[in-house]
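Project standup — Tuesday

K.O.: blocked on the structure for the chain from last sprint. Re-posting the sequence here as requested.
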Amino acid sequence: MVTTIAVPPHLDVSRVAGYIESCRVADGGYFFAQIPPAGGQDTYFALACLRLLGREPQDVPGVRRWVEEWRRKHSNVWGIHSIYLLFGLLEELGESLNLARPYAAAVASEENSLGGYGAYDNVYVQTASELLATYEAVSVLTRLGCAVNHDRVEGFLSRYRQRDGGFGVRRSTLASTYYANATLAQFGKPAASMEGANLYLRRRARRWDVSFLDDVFWLIQGLSLTGSSAAFAHDAATHVLACQRAQGGFARAPAIGIPTLEYTYYALQVLDSVGLLVRGGER
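H.V.: unblocked you, prediction finished:
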């Protein structure tokens, strides 16, 4: 089987893949700084990037060994985010998610008094959104077939809905709007239930009111939930390609920043979501 990739102009897939593999370190995982030890998040981003490019890691057995060693260390896998990362790593390697089933109870125990998961007050300043933990917890529990009280979660999310249709604490943000709607999508909610958020996102997209690659990611992924992202393919691709660096990876902003695996993943996922990085069939 040959996987073909339709790419936007000037994106050298081999160069991007080369950058990703340059971040593989001696212990078998990946780290953007290119020195051991590898990290769970960077290893996940590396594997996801290679999948989007239609590639496999150069040393699949080595990555599998690293993931196995990483997950067996309790300090690595203990909270919602790290358990969510473990699920992502297992999925990218084609492993059974049953390996992570023992962690389901730990995730369920993080349900907060308002019906969401994790902290909802005094959230760590570097957290992308106060709704991130709820999205990740629901993702883990849903994929394991565990019971999730949809009404309680929806009630929690509704606390953050703003008049303009988006979600956020004091005002709508791209991150919170994306994570709220991505959570609802896991409940099988129809696109119509996200119409308000879609209008907010489309207004932001028409103004192209974004500065950073993570903003572009949340904006385009949010629009993808209602099938509205393709209309903004040109702006998205232009912004993404401006963030690419000579090494092949992508930085957070066009003008400043070094390439990382995280932003390279955001770049490739955006291109994929607007139909410019699409796997073809057999040839």
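K.O.: great, moving the ticket to review. The first strand starts at residue 5 and ends at 6. Residues 2 and 195 are 39 Å apart (CA to CA).
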